[in-house]
C-alpha cells in the first residue's frame, strides 16, 4: 500500500484532478495531518508553562501559520521577513521569538519595535542590542557543546558551528548585561536538525540548564527544535518515540522548577516535525530515457521546487501514479530528475520504481512540506509552483498562487540602455 493511501493523504481526491486544476508541479498540504502533528507536540507536556514554538522557516505559508496558531502554538522567526509574515498571519508580537544570527542593528530595531522577544547569538550581538536598546530584556542562544542532525550543514551545536555563545562565556554575558542594564530573561539553544533519537537533545537540554542556573533572572528556557520525521517510510522507518521524549521532558521541567523553587517557561521549537509530513510535491513525468545503461525519469520537479536531495543528499520517498490504470508489479532502478540545467538536479537516485513509468504519469515527492517551498527559487526562471490545501472534507483551496512570468521580472528596473 502506498504511504499516501495509508494516511488518506488526498482525502479521496485524485492527484490528477489536483494537477489539472492547479497546474504541475504543485505543493499539496493536508490540513488534518498538519493539525495531528501540532497536537502531538502540543501535548508533549501538560505543564502550563510549556509553550511549543513553530519554526516558521520550515514553511511560512500564511494559511499554514494560521492553522498552527489555531492549535495553540507560538512561533520562531529567524529573519525580519518572517516576523512580518507571522504578524500578517495573526500572531501577536509577544508570541514571536526572533532567533536570528548575525543580525544588523536595523534588524534588531525592527524586532524590538514590533515587540518580539529577541535572542542574541554572540557576545558582540548582545553588545549591539545593549547599544541600541539599553535595558532590553533578551534571551541568549548558547551552544551547549553538543550537536546533532542529518548532516554537517545542519548541525548547529558543538565545535564546528557558527551558532551560539559558548558555555564558558556565560560570565561575560552577565557582565555585558550588567553594564548595559539588560535583563537576561531567557536562554535558548538549537543543536541541529533531524534527530530520531532524543539522547543528544536531552544532553543539550541538561547542558543548557547548567547555564540557566547562572542567570537568576531567567524565566524562559528554550530547548530548540530538530525533531525528526521518518523520511524512509517505504522501507519501514519508524517514527520517533514521542512518548519517551514526553516523559523525559516532563521530568526535566519538573526537576528544574523544583530545584529553583519557581515556575519557569519551557519551550521547544520544531519546524520540520510540524510541517514536513503534511506536504506532498506533485509533478509530471515529461520524459523517460536511458543513458549509460541507467534509466532517467525526467520530471518537472527541479531542485527549484525541492532542493534537499541536491543540497544535502536527502532522501524523499517517491510515489508514481498512472492515470486510470494500475502500475505493473515489476520494478527497476532509475534516477528521478528535474528540469533544471545542472547535473546535480535530482529528486531521487537509484530508486526502485515501477516498470512502464511513462510520460504523463505523476511523480509525488513525499514529506515535502518542510524546506520545500521555503527553499524554492526562481533559478532558470522557473516559476515557483502553487500551494494547495486539502481540507478534512476533501475540498481543496489555493493558499498561494504560483509565480507568473511577470512576477519573475517584476523587480527588475527598466533602465535606459545608453550607448
Ligand atoms: C531551523 C531552526 C529550527 C527548526 O529546525 P527543525 O529541524 O525544522 O525542527 C528551530 N530553531 C532554530 C533556531 C532554527 O534555526
List the helices and strands and how they pair.
Layout: H1 3-6, H2 15-22, E1 26-30, H3 31-42, E2 50-55, H4 62-70, E3 74-77, H5 80-88, E4 96-99, H6 105-114, E5 117-120, H7 123-132, E6 137-143, E7 165-166, H8 170-180, E8 183-188, H9 199-212, E9 220-222, H10 242-260, E10 265-268, H11 272-275, E11 279-291, E12 294-299, H12 308-312, E13 318-321, E14 331-337, E15 346-354, E16 362-365, E17 386-390, E18 396-400, H13 405-409
Parallel strand pairs: 1-17, 2-3, 2-10, 3-4, 4-5, 5-6, 6-7, 6-8, 8-9, 9-10, 12-14
Antiparallel strand pairs: 1-11, 11-12, 11-16, 13-16, 14-15, 17-18
Helix pairs in contact: 7-8, 9-10
Residues 55, 57-58, 76, 78, 99, 190, 193-194, 224-227, 269-273, 370 line the site of pyridoxal-5'-phosphate.
Tags for this model:
419 residues; alpha/beta; nine-stranded mixed β-sheet; eight-stranded parallel barrel; 13 helices; 18 strands; 29% helix; 23% strand; globular; binds pyridoxal-5'-phosphate
Description:
The structure is a single chain. The relative contact order is 0.16. The chain has helices at 3-6, 15-22, 31-42, 62-70, 80-88, 105-114, 123-132, 170-180, 199-212, 242-260, 272-275, 308-312, 405-409; strands at residues 26-30, 50-55, 74-77, 96-99, 117-120, 137-143, 165-166, 183-188, 220-222, 265-268, 279-291, 294-299, 318-321, 331-337, 346-354, 362-365, 386-390, 396-400. Helix 9 (199-212) packs parallel to helix 10. It starts with a helix and ends in a 10-residue tail after the last helix. The protein is 29% helix and 23% strand. The longest helix is centred in the middle third of the chain and has 19 residues, at 242-260. The chain is of the alpha/beta class and 419 residues long. Strands 1, 11, 12, 13, 14, 15, 16, 17 and 18 form a 9-stranded mixed beta sheet that branches. Strands 2-3-4-5-6-8-9-10 form an 8-stranded parallel β-barrel, surrounded by 5 helices. The protein is built from 13 helices and 18 strands. The mean pLDDT is 96. Pyridoxal-5'-phosphate binds next to helix 11. Pyridoxal-5'-phosphate binds at residues 55, 57-58, 76, 78, 99, 190, 193-194, 224-227, 269-273, 370.
